[in-house]
Amino acid sequence: MDQTQRAARRAGGTDRAGGRSGRRQADPTAPAIPTAPAGAPVLRPLTARSIVLSTLLGHHPAELPARALVRAGQVFGTADGTIRVALTRMVAAGDLEQRHGSYRLSARLLARQARQDDSRAPVLREWTGDWEIALVTGERRTVAERAALRQAMGTLRLAELREGSWLRPANLERPRPPAAAEQCAWLTGVPDDDPARLAARLWDLDGWAAQARWLLAALTAADTLAGRFEVAAAMVRQLLADPVLPAPLLPADWPGEELRAGYGAFEAEFRAAVWGGTG
């Protein structure tokens, strides 16, 4: 069963903690969600955990009282008890911290919130044609060190040209995580060949654009807030994979900003439903 078929069958679910939420009937007059392209993000079912997590990830500071998170669940028809059980389980799993009747994201998820915020509004600088180049200098690295470096390079939106060689256009302002600063020598350079051709080699730009356009179409086709919630969660994951390249290196009609605007429109809708437009 492909993603389109799964999306079409999402007409309801259970009301158990962490299970399906928001029983609903599809509108037969709504436009059909188009077939997903290769590599498209999976539309994950709406759960009590995803409601809590997305609500806190979108809130600054990322801390809310239990009653506010219960109210967010009510918007999707999720029972109060289901949200409260999910909160207990998320605290036990280390996803949340509880204090004085409120819940806040753990340090790990606060880092995720920062990455999501950056993916929605990356800090750009004028691009002069230079590229950042990182060369791994450590001869003997542990598995944990290698994994930490790969995660850091993903956060920095660098691509691996070959093992131990990472690069990207120097058009972003962001701090370097310790793993990247400590394990690499950093250089600035300019490619001899066409930089747009190099960018297309490093990133699957056509694939990313096709997936982004599918998500925008799926958001339009979703006929319930719960359905749009599922698509919006996938949009966030897609934005995290956006290389955020300078315009001269991108294909025509790049949908990056359109995807950000689409997610922003959903977020405004969600805030209005939960908080009356505030929060």
Task: Describe, in plain words, how this protein is organized in 3D.
The protein is α+β, with helices and mostly antiparallel strands and about 280 residues long. The chain contains eleven helices and seven strands. The strands form two sheets. A four-stranded antiparallel β-sheet has the order 5-6-4-7. Strands 1-3-2 form a three-stranded antiparallel β-sheet. The protein starts with a helix and ends with a helix. Mean pLDDT is about 90; it is low at about 5-25.
Class inferred from helices and paired strands: alpha+beta
How far apart are the termini?
39 Å
Sheet having the most strands: 4 strands, antiparallel
Tally of helical segments: 11
Q: Which spans have pLDDT < 50 for at least 5 consecutive residues?
A: 4-26
Q: What coarse outline follows from CA principal-axis ratios? A: globular
**Proportion of residues in extended strands:** 5-15%
Mean pLDDT: 89
Q: How large is the radius of gyration?
A: 21 Å
Biggest sheet, strands in spatial order? 5-6-4-7
H and E string? HHEHHEEHEHEEHEHHHH
Q: Give helix % range.
A: 40-55%
DSSP E strands, number: 7
